[in-house]
Design a protein that fits this description.
Distance between the termini: 50 Å
Structural class: alpha/beta
Order of helices and strands: HEHEHEEHEHEHEH
CATH class of the largest domain: Alpha Beta
Strand content: 5-15%
Radius of gyration: 20 Å
Largest sheet: 7 strands, parallel
Helix content: 40-55%
Shape: globular
Number of strands: 7
Oligomer: single chain
Length: 231
């Protein structure tokens, strides 16, 4: 190894160690801020969906209706804090005078916090994994509206956490059969047939079309179960 390469490797190690230390401090600070802000938030449902859903899209109105009816049943609403479905859900929660929580993420495009989040319940994150921890730790159910890669990421991560018993089973509801049925058909006809999931894994997921069905799925689930933190 020549002297130049040795010097480059040494400098890289020093720089990487310093950067890692700063990053770790930032990550810990984000966790602490989230835990402190949400520790006593009470029963909540997280609603996921596309930031690109416009107010004239039927799923925008449906997201608002779902959130409003869940709030009227005593649940706080947690969203990613941005536009689209997230805005609609926070708007519905605010209309019902329910708790309206936003877990924003700093992105170079799309993401900005909406105006329907309670002022003391808006948190912003740099790291997706910290943000997702807050969704899963402080929710007692998950509603998946139509969305893109981010929504799919959240859907499969939550399904995995429930499937592997990393936290207790809880309702997970896909809203919009037209949107989700193709994915669920593939899961049943490919994943299941290949033996990569078990038949009981499919029972973890409900698929519905209306706000009332969403509420029924979640309320019925908890009729005989206590509402409790996930971790």
């Amino acid at each position: 190894m020549n002297a130049t390469l040795k010097t480059l490797k040494a400098n890289y190690w020093i720089e990487s160690t310093e950067q890692s230390s700063r990053q770790l401090q930032k990550i810990v600070a984000e966790f602490e801020a989230g835990f402190e802000a949400l520790a006593k938030i009470g029963p909540c449902i997280s609603i996921f969906g596309s930031a690109r859903t416009k107010p004239d899209n039927p799923y925008y109105a449906l997201s608002a209706e779902v959130a409003q009816k869940l709030a009227l049943n005593g649940f706080g609403i947690i969203t990613g804090g941005g536009p689209g479905v997230m805005e609609a859900a926070n708007r519905g929660a605010a209309k019902a005078n329910g708790k309206s929580i936003g877990l924003n993420i700093y992105l170079p495009f799309e993401q900005h916090n909406n105006d329907y989040i309670d002022k003391d319940k808006l948190l912003s994150f740099d790291h997706f994994f910290v943000r997702k921890m807050m969704f899963t730790k402080y929710s007692q159910g998950f509603v998946m509206m139509p969305g893109g890669f981010g929504t799919m990421d959240e859907f499969f991560e939550i399904a995995t956490l429930i499937q592997t018993a990393k936290f207790k089973q809880m309702p997970m509801v896909l809203v919009g059969r037209k949107y989700w049925s193709g994915l669920m058909k593939w899961i049943e006809e490919v994943m299941l047939i290949e033996g990569n999931i078990s038949p009981e894994d499919l029972t973890l997921i409900d698929m519905v079309d209306t706000a009332d069905e969403v509420v029924d799925c979640i309320v019925d689930f908890y009729r005989t179960r206590p509402l409790a933190p996930n971790f």
